[in-house]
Automatic annotation (TrEMBL):
Domain of life (superkingdom): Bacteria
Protein family: Belongs to the AB hydrolase superfamily.
Organism listed in the record: Spirosoma foliorum
Gene3D superfamilies attached to this UniProt entry: alpha/beta hydrolase
GO MF terms held by the record: hydrolase activity
SUPFAM superfamilies per record: alpha/beta-Hydrolases
Domain named AB hydrolase-1: residues: 21-259
Keyword Hydrolase: yes
Xref: InterPro entries: AB_hydrolase_1, AB_hydrolase_fold
This protein's name: Alpha/beta hydrolase
Pfam families hit by this protein: Abhydrolase_6
Keywords, in A-Z order: Hydrolase
Amino acid sequence: MTPTIRNRYNITVTGNGTQPILFAHGFGCDQTMWRYVAPAFEAHYQVIRFDYIGHGKASLGAYNRERYASLQGYAQDVLDICHDLDLNEVIFVGHSVSSMIGLLASIQEPNRFERLIMVSPSPHYINEEDYTGGFERVDIEELLDTMDSNFFGWATVMGPAIMANAERPELGRELTQSFCATDQQVAQQFARVTFLGDNRLDLVKVGRPTLIIQSIADDIAPVAVGEYMAQHMPQSTLRVIEVQGHSPHLSDPTETIAAIQHYLQTAN
């Protein structure tokens, strides 16, 4: 692992195993969001966490608006890390938009990956005539406009809404703080790439077994999204867990760990 790559993405490597399990955080977050889940895999895997550019402690100076004008730029980040660490047979665990980032990386270099695990994924957030994404286009446009005009106000409202679990307000506050800590220009472009993107046609291209973990109540990625993905992805398994909100790895890490471990232990 070269110092440049290590520092660029603030890569952390732990664990006693040899097979790599690579945890990728979602929009406006960083690798600390996996702190309750990742340690459960350290006994048997090489556990790798990192921050995307503009998030956490990654190198903001490496940000390039042209590269990150699509999720393919973030997929290249994943592949750059795999190349530098010489990772093979990777188990990729992505939260939210990172599920699609991992999907794109696996399509580009399928031999690098053994399987994908997607936590609260969505290939498209906007409702279409024959597709339920969870939002009308006008809702997404208003959300993005609010980010542009009042970023911190947006973060204050959206953090608790995305997290749900109103009886545990500390979870919403953590997400809000994470949004606010993300570079604003990075977050604004990443939000557009995320919420206006459409990766539905990419689902059939995935050549690796995939676990889709969906919360029973998630306003950002409803169960219908998981069902759609399972219907269109070969070798996919849908697991709906009894958890509220879009970030089950924070709100119920025990249930999230159990879903991942059961899948890995029973995988062929």
